[in-house]
Amino acid sequence: MSSGNPIVECVPNFSNGRDKRVIEAISQAIREVPGAALLDVDPGEATNRTVFTMVGAPDAVIEAAFQAIKKGQELIDMRSHHGAHPRMGACDVCPFVPVADITMEQCAELARRLGARVGQELGIPVYLYEHAASKPEWKNLAVVRQGEYEGLEARSSDDYWKPDFGPVFNARSGATAVGARPFLVAYNINLNTREVRKAQKISAILREKGIARRDENNLAIRDAAGELVRDPGMFRCVKGMGWFIDEYDCAQMTFNMTDYTVSSPHELLDAARRLADQEGVVITGSELVGLIPLDAMLQAGHYYLKRQGVCQGAPWNEVIECAIRSMGLRDLSEFDPDHSIIERQIQKDGPLVSMTVREWADTLSSQAPAPGGGSVAALCGSMAAGLAAMVGNLTVGKKGYEDKWELLDEPAVKAQALKEAFLADIDNDTAAFDSVMVAFGLPKGTPTEKQARGAAIRRANQHATMVPLGVLERCVATLPCIEAALQGNENARSDAGVAVLMCKACAEGAWYNVCINTKSMKDREFVTMVRERADAALATVDEAAARLTKLVREQLGG
Predict the structure, then answer these.
(1) Three-state DSSP class for 240?
(2) Cis peptide before 315 (omega within 30 of 0)
(3) CATH label of the domain that carries residue 189
(4) Residue 431: inside a domain, yes or no?
(5) 361 and 398, same structural domain?
(6) Residue 8, beta-bridge partner list
(7) How many whole angstroms separate alpha carbon 18 and alpha carbon 11?
(8) Whole-structure pTM over 0.90, yes or no?
(9) What would the pLDDT profile of 300-327 be if each residue is shown by its tens digit?
């Protein structure tokens, strides 16, 4: 669920992938900024480039990015830099990426703030790109980086190339592109050949830019203006090229996927496999550079599970493992989901969810104030959704239930997502209670302190109310999954029936928590809004639970 606190990702790329001293110094500059978490450092020997990934609150991430660029300026001299990857500066690019509770336009404003400071304080030319671009054509990073570092001095006398911030030229540091963009997936695919032309041809067919059209003499065709005539590529929002990678001793296709929701890595890989076969070569594995969103991995896993003819609604860990194996993500290097999937780094299981059943029951039955009824209600919700998903897995792909496969597959996928959200709220409920206690413990000796304490208590109580309200309303979303399960495998009818009971218990328990939290609130507008939503959700669950319980009893012969 949304935390209400904006979280932004920043992925600065520095033109040094070989000097561990430089890489560690930049890493340390990021680590020293409170509120910014360095999630990943990915150096490349052949590219001589390191990708750093950090997340955190906007102000903290801006500060960490600035300190990293400042450190890179001290340690990297572009006059002696060489590498396989296109680049134009010590810090080549520095994009901001929205993660939670922040818009793309807000990220563009962060880019402008950082760019202005880098240009003014560090004397580095800064070009804004993608969603922060000041010129339409500068939305394309390839245009901004045209001529790379070696071409910067020549274009410095052209007004068109005047940077958005900073001087027109810096021989030591080059220039930096700062922008805002969707999540970029950097993805490499290896071939079982050293023939770079194979990788170049396949990647050109796949990328959005496409491949140059050739005549009967195999000469590139140009239009009247002398521009290459291209056949459109297969995938939008994909940039790609082929090269030779010494560390693997083979040709490799490297791609930047600028919007994985438009073109996904698994779709790209499958198309690459088909094209490779036509070229008489074989794909020997793929790798991700940096991090990937959880959603992209789940999409891939669901895609391959569907191709296998089994239920897509497997637990997320199984779905992710299916994606890893199907895409060969461990064939070239180690792939750890807890490290490579961004949400796995910033959204860990809480202390209650991590308990054994015995530890949970013992803590619940002790004098400890948490977990309490709110956490128990969320646990019931997770079991309701889990049972609905289980019935889907016992039905889809099973002989004798072919006519039910399509009916239960998608509800099982949805039930797994609901299960995960319920599980998160087990700890969210306790954390919200703890926040209320902290607010009550604030000092109240002066009028200013009293006012600040009162405001903190109001905010904490409202947040502590919105958590169970979210749990309650999620019960409504769970009902269709349970109803579908009641049409699944007949041997699991009792399991679907228990899902109904757990959903009912979850909703009733969450409603109790909403009521007790709002009972003494003075903000009547807030109370009215919350109670209306809670009452409506509970009424919906009550009606459905009564109907479905009656159906289960009839089906079981009661």
Answers:
(1) strand
(2) no
(3) 3.30.70.670
(4) yes
(5) yes
(6) 56, 98
(7) 19
(8) no
(9) 999 999 999 999 999 999 999 999 999 9
Strand 176-180 and strand 185-191: the pairing is unpaired
Tell me the sheet residues that pair with 299. Answer: none
Range of the domain at 362: 357-555
Q: Can 429 be counted among the known catalytic residues?
A: yes
Cβ neighbours of residue 369 closer than 8 Å, sequence gap 6 or more: 433
Which residue would you say has higher pLDDT here, 476 or 225?
Answer: 476
- Tokens 């199907």 correspond to 326
**Can you spell out the DSSP letters for 343-410?**
HHHHS---TTTTS-HHHHHHHHTSS-S-S-HHHHHHHHHHHHHHHHHHHHHTTTT-TT-GGGHHHHHH
Q: How far apart are CA 272 and CA 278, in angstroms?
A: 10
Q: With b meaning 16 or more CB within 10 Å and e meaning fewer, what string describes 256-290? A: bbbebeebbbbbbbbbbeebbeebebebbbbbbbb
Answer yes or no: is 454 within a domain: yes
The continuous run of DSSP H or E covering 109 comes out as: helix 104-117
Measuring CA to CA, how many Å separate 226 from each of 137, 214, 220, 229, 543? Answer: 20, 14, 11, 9, 70
- Compute φ and ψ for 363, nearest 5 degrees: -65, -40
Q: Which of 42, 92, 429, 495 is catalytic?
A: 429
Minimal CA–CA distance to 51: which of 22, 20, 23?
23
Q: Which of 85, 295, 434, 535 is catalytic?
A: 85
